[in-house]
Design a protein that fits this description.
alpha+beta, five-stranded mixed beta sheet, transmembrane helix, Thioredoxin-like_sf, globular, 11 helices, Thioredoxin-like_fold, Glutaredoxin, 264 residues
């Protein structure tokens, strides 16, 4: 082989070796990239899984009258009326820390209570606690972590004491002016007292609250909130159909909608 041919062969060999190395490096980068993606996916997935509420048994303790099909609190005489099937059902999703829910109760609460008392609507309060995550830092800074959860557990304890409607009204009235301040247990107990829960019943209420008797119920209700795809609070469903905010916050329109849904 001539010197010229040998030089050309050497150059070709170097080019081939460079091409092989380039492919090898590209493969390393691809594999490395996949490893990084996998690691990042794992890091992202861990917080999501860690933030998911713990799975609770389906036989978790439930407040009086609450059933596991909805985990809602049914109030008023219409539920046991002889013609109950003709009376519309109004389901209300609320978070006790939600300022919009407090405004809704202020605007339409009295009208709803009037319809409840008159047996013209079957109301089911469906509590959620999504604001515990949104307000975690401010609730904790105020010394009242998990305020939505504790307020909802207290609601369940009030249901047992036969004071569901009064406590429901009182807890929104006691909502702090500054969102994120949350509820202390002392505040929740005070709301219970103002709702007519006193003496031995108040002792039972306090034990119910501090022992977190209804933590499982609260978790199940929150899971239902997620699984049913409810996007905000307050949300009102009249016989399964979502009502607009305009109707919810207008007592006249809300009353008219309920009356129109009544079966003859």
């Amino acid at each position: 082989m001539s010197a010229k041919a040998a030089k050309a062969a050497a150059a070709a060999a170097r080019q081939e070796a460079a091409a092989i190395e380039q492919k090898r490096q590209r493969k390393i980068r691809i594999i490395g990239g996949l490893v990084v993606v996998a690691v990042m996916a794992a890091l992202i997935a861990i917080p999501v899984l860690s933030n998911k509420d713990a799975v609770v048994p389906t036989d978790a303790a439930l407040p009086t009258g609450v059933t596991s099909d909805t985990y809602g609190v049914k109030v008023g005489p219409a539920w046991t009326a002889t013609d109950a099937d003709k009376i519309p059902v109004l389901q209300l999703w609320e978070d006790f820390q939600c300022p919009a829910c407090a405004r809704f109760e202020e605007a339409s609460g009295a009208a709803i209570q009037g319809l409840i008392d008159a047996g013209k609507v079957r109301v089911e309060y469906r509590p959620t606690i999504f604001l515990d995550k949104n307000l975690l830092s401010s609730n904790t800074a105020a010394g009242n972590p998990n305020s939505s959860q504790r307020a909802t557990m207290a609601f369940g304890c009030a249901v047992d004491a036969g004071a569901a409607e009064k406590f429901h009204l009182g807890i929104f009235a006691a909502q702090p002016a500054e969102e994120g301040s949350g509820f202390s247990n002392d505040t929740l107990i005070s709301v219970a007292e103002a709702s007519g829960i006193t003496g031995a019943e108040l002792d039972t209420f306090t034990e119910c609250l501090t022992s977190e008797k209804y933590a499982g119920w609260v978790a199940n209700s929150y899971d239902a909130f997620d699984s049913e795809g409810v996007s905000s609070t307050p949300t009102g469903l009249l016989d399964g159909t979502e009502l607009s905010g305009e109707v919810l916050f207008d007592p006249a329109q809300l009353t008219a909608a309920i009356e129109a849904a009544t079966k003859s």
